[in-house]
Specification:
The protein is mainly α and 92 residues long. It has three helices and no strands. Helix 1 (9-24) packs antiparallel against helix 2 (31-49). It is flat, with a radius of gyration of 20 Å. GO terms for molecular function: ATP binding.
Length: 92
């Protein structure tokens, strides 16, 4: 469910309710810890209200197709990189 669904009053109310619940469990004395708690609560609340929408705040500039290709690549186990064809500099 895309983020623009939060414009719907029922979904926005669910989000506010979920966020309030998440924030009520936050504790922390430092600014960084408090920010991480708020950020985590916001992401958790959004995920609870819009569970099918992955949130990638750092990758907002990457296309959906690129993200799916990255995810597919991450699922492939990494090799050890010692074969000659894996590193052309070692093929001497």
């Amino acid at each position: 469910m895309p983020i623009h669904y939060l414009r719907r009053s029922t979904i926005a109310q669910q989000y506010r309710s979920e966020l309030a619940q998440q924030l009520s469990t936050c504790t922390g004395s430092g600014c960084d810890e408090a920010w991480q708690n708020v950020k985590g609560a916001m992401l958790a609340a959004f995920s609870a209200v819009c569970p099918t929408s992955p949130i990638r705040p750092q990758n907002h500039w990457i296309s959906a197709r690129s993200l799916s290709m990255i995810d597919a690549r991450k699922s492939i186990p990494a090799g050890n990189g010692t074969t000659a064809h894996a590193n052309p500099l070692n093929a001497k």
